[in-house]
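We now fix the convention by which a protein and its fold are recorded. The integers have meaning only within a learned vocabulary of local backbone shapes. A record is reproduced here so that you can trace the correspondence yourselves:
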Amino acid sequence: MYTFIPAGGADRRKVIFLGLRGIPEVQGGVETHVAALSVRMAQRGWQVEVLGRKPYLPALRSFVWKDVTVTPIWSPRSKSFEALLHTAFGLCVAAQRGPDLVHIQAIGPALLTPFARLLGLRVVVTHHGFDYDRQKWGWFAKRVLRAGEMMGMTFSHANIGVSKAIVDAVRRNFGVAATFIPNGVESDLPKLGTSFLDDIAVTPKRYILCVGRIVEEKRQLDLIDAFARMNDPDAKLIIVGTADHNGSYLRAVEKAAAATPGVVMTGFQRGETLSQLYQHAALFVLPSSHEGMPIVLLEALSHGTACLASDIDANLALDLGAENYFPLGDVDALANAMKGKLAAPDSVQSSEERAARIMSSFGWSPIVDRTIEVYESALPVWKPRIALRSVANVKKHLEFGG
């Protein structure tokens, strides 16, 4: 599946992605976004490398996936420190590589944008959402994330925001411009069978689907509670995803699922298995209290699946119609909305129109075009090809020594 390679590569324009857990098939919206974008950048002739976190990757040394080099960098498995430490070590490796650009993902890792500048790197930062609004963070972490937002937006050479609300906030709060480039969805999705549904004893079009990391802001407990209140013995609720770190919320979700008839937890799913779940669901529900640009909602819509989402700004920005939203945290309203959706399923024509609308607005080709335009704006008129050799030994230790 993977080709292992030595360090180095062809003398093409090179971008290094940093700040994410890794690719391919690593859980997370940022990871899904970078996996799709990096492959398409490679197809456009760029040399692309993703510096991932070693605990999340399938190999301990660099490998090639769809013409993208993926390099594991040591990081602790820690909710509080892994992103920052990985980014710091990754920037040292990037400085040795001497890329044209480093593309940092999310405002937490963006805290180290000034460090990247000190290393002589050209930096683009993508703002994926107001992470300091996530329920899991305490007051100190929230302050660090706000500092990361400020550092990333003001010290980078160019910024990207995945929603118009983010772009507006960056301009208002920091007086700098950011380019709106949303997350994308795959096109030309094939019709799939039901082999995985058969394995978990679920009937097509008789289940509600929820996909996402199991963390507080995804509100899976609200969904399980609402499903129980529906009291529909013929329906099932499938919860796809897992937590990166074991904790009280994961245990609470597992306990509630085990106590509620009809709830099936599948863990993290990918590829054809996940596509089967999207395609054959009667309803997709996203009850989140926080999103940037909700990739899982876009994926469900691209399959033509009927959707129901909480009425937070990020979800409302997709303009799905009032009947497809419910008040955040209102479990009774969610239960009634789900019951109504199952009782009156959409027609095939409605599903096809829904998928076509999403494809036209969130196709990958214009997203890649606009990303390259941002990259070009961040590049100097000329770039000396000088790598920082002083960190070579650090790089070697981080990649191969652990």
About this structure: Residues 98 and 387 are 4 Å apart (CA to CA). The chain has two domains: 3-184+363-393, 195-359. The chain has 15 helices and 15 strands. Residues 195-359 form a domain with the Rossmann fold fold (CATH 3.40.50.2000).
